[in-house]
Each structure stands twice: as structure tokens, then as C-alpha cells.
Amino acid sequence: MTAVGVNRQSVKRYPHAARFNAVSLQCHPHLFAICTEFGRTPGMEQRGGGKDGRDHHPNGFTIWMAGGGIKPGHIYGATDDLGYYAIENIATVYDMWATVLHLMGLDHEQLTYRFGGRDLRLTDVHGNVLRDVIA
Asked: Which domain holds residue 102?
């Protein structure tokens, strides 16, 4: 099981959370991934009108992956102590998708489709396979 882009404070407070159910998933042939298209701001916001909450935050977020060829028990990347900015092994969503496609046996640079007169791919013109998270 691998956590990509982990908040350092979360790891300090909950050191066993990144290992939950690792034994049953680490050698599983299917890839499990829990992620979103962006993170959330680390703190609550006072917006007024009873709409307090957390805003979109693309600068630091966590993706959880297990099985399917992912290195078990590995944490790749970290944010600052506030969870605001990625500061170590910075990876993008494009990198994550390039890695997922690689684990499925597909070359993300070759997987293209034509739309609007342009060749498009899931990783756009970005994305590198995160070799350090592959078992």
C-alpha cells in the first residue's frame, strides 16, 4: 500500500493509518486507488453566511493505492507541516495516471484519441511514471 503525497502531521498523529489492511491488499492482482481530482485546503475557512468549509486545493493532496504492482508500505512525497504545499517528491495527477496506465500494461504516451482535430491523451502532454512506487 502506498500513500502518495502524505501530510507529515497526519503520519505523526496516525502512524498506523497508512498500513491499515496492508497484508490483504499488498499482493492483490487488482489495483486499488482512492483519490480525488484535487485536495482541500488544510484549514477551515470563514466565508460568512453559514457556508464555512474547505476550498479546492491543488498544491497538496493524498492518493492511496494498493495492490496491482504498487510497492507495499511506501510513502512517496510529503507536504509542509501545515499540509499546504508539496515539498518532497512532488507528483502531479498526470504522473499518477501515467503510473496507473503503466501498471495496466498501457503506455500513456501511445494511448491517444482524436477529438476536435487534435490527438488527446489522459495525461495530456504531461505525466511521468512514478517508478519509485512500483514494486
From this structure: 2-133
